[in-house]
Amino acid sequence: MKGHAEIVEMLNKANPDVARLRDGSSPLHLAAEGGHVRAVEELLKVAFVNGCDDHGHTPLHRASINGNGPVVTLLLEVDADVLVRDFEDKTARDVWAGSDDRVREDMQRQAIRQRGVQRVS
User: Fold this and answer.
1) For residues 2 and 28, what is the distance between their CA atoms, to the nearest angstrom?
2) What residue ranges are annotated as transmembrane (predicted)?
3) Alpha carbons 18 and 84: distance in angstroms, whole number
4) Which of 38, 53, 62, 89 would bridge 5 by S-S if both were Cys, CB 3.0 to 4.6 A apart?
């Protein structure tokens, strides 16, 4: 995936139920990992934002591991669950590899908000 949002849009229209790779990665995982904001925007129209691969990584984990701040921000805007823990018991905030502390702070704020929602339920 090269981040070509137009191609992603065409594929989504043709068959939004795209197959996963052997490691459980979805196209959304790959786009998030690669930092392809426009492709992520298109894939979010049909993909589950909190879907996990075979390592327990969500697209938010993948974007965080690779320090893709703009993708992390986009995923937070669509309410990606920052409380999901991978199979090593790490959240996306734990694996953030970027240099922008604001992104880490945004993840922390979302975690606090999501914890509050869980307590009420």
Assistant:
1) 12
2) none
3) 23
4) 38
